[in-house]
Design a protein that fits this description.
about 190 residues; 4 helices
Length: about 190
Amino acid sequence: MYMNIISKHMGSAKYYCNNRICTQCHIARGTIFRSRAYKDYDFTNSIFLAQTDTTIGFLSNNVVYINQKKNAQKTKPLLQEFAYFRDLTIRIPPTFRRYIRKAKKTSFILSDNMSFRVIHDTLHQRFLQNIGNLYSSSANPTGKGFNDIFAYQKCDIIVVDKRGLFESKSSTIFKVKFNRIKRIRP
């Protein structure tokens, strides 16, 4: 259950930082990510390429930065990933609280256009515990399919766990209103 960090300089995806600690992003290469020392680093303008609980994706604290890298509208809302339900700062309608708590690999959009997913996958959950809540988007160009060259060129930090990086089915999306729930994407 260890995660390796590969810090990458801005440029070609073939060149990884071979230093023990990268001088540009100050992240130890190939180290275990559950170390608490990473709490001191500022990841606000960093994009992680990581295997989420559903598919490979871009993760960052900054919504605008992800949209800029993907050539999307800067105001496009993104999904927010949480490690635990206690981290949610929004109120969920009481009718669907149990359903949302039990759902796996499912994203929810609330009536105020805030979308979120609580992670149940232990490997990705550990990553979120150390970094905090992150915004997530698929690692592909806007409106197109997955392209690994695009993903490696646009990310700043690659996070690899024992599963590796692979494309799989995206999450199911539900829109939750007061007394209704509607499936947006199967």
